[in-house]
Amino acid sequence: MRIQVVTLFPEMFRGVFGTSIIGRARRRGVIDLRLVPLRPFGRGPHRSTDDYPFGGGAGMLLRADVLVPAVEWAQAHAPEPARVLFTSPRGRVLTQGLAAELSREAHLIVVAGHYEGYDERALLLTGGEEVSVGDFVLSGGEIPAMALVDAVVRLLPGALGSAESIREESFSGPDGGLEAPQYTRPLVYRGLAVPEVLVSGNHAAVAHWRQEQSRALTAARRPDLLAGRVAGPKKPVL
């Protein structure tokens, strides 16, 4: 899979994209991940990328005549047609389902917005889609772009050491709910013991316990995820 990130601040991405799961996926050839700096596409002697909004208002907007050429350059330097995504609080909320959908694409171009956003014509002329990471506003679209890329890359075959970990985590299990509590050594810590079922060796009992815990936690903390399904007990029993 190929992902290109168009950004005014490429230096913000290098640490994140060079370490942990994303870094390993790049080194293994699972993902071809590139940064497209926006500044070289800027206008005038100072390579300006933003300007004041028509009609007034606070802040600055990224210019369409800067963003569109950058996206077109990224597309021209890849053989596969791209699905273009703009980070924006107006967009479709990034969920595990959307991440899975995007992971099946051959090529993504992610545009990290900044300042007060971007000229609407950039979205229209590139055929872009807006994606949001939640109902809050950040200083720029770089962190949402990192979150989007991370959510997609970890779903690609070969990115994680075990595909089982994806099937068991929050939003990805059979019920799409929250992940059950997990424990490791020591067996007892400050008077709190690991639930006996997890050290019983009874795999069926462990699976049943995790399923019940997942349903209980989801009902207590994210009942919206249980819409249309029968909720489990209101409180988890540890």
From TrEMBL:
It comes from the Bacteria. It catalyses: guanosine(37) in tRNA + S-adenosyl-L-methionine = N(1)-methylguanosine(37) in tRNA + S-adenosyl-L-homocysteine + H(+). GO terms for biological process: tRNA N1-guanine methylation. It is found in: Cytoplasm. InterPro entries: Alpha/beta_knot_MTases, tRNA_m1G_MeTrfase_C_sf, tRNA_m1G_MeTrfase_TrmD, tRNA_m1G_MTases_N, tRNA_MeTrfase_TRMD/TRM10. Homodimer. Specifically methylates guanosine-37 in various tRNAs. This is tRNA (guanine-N(1)-)-methyltransferase.
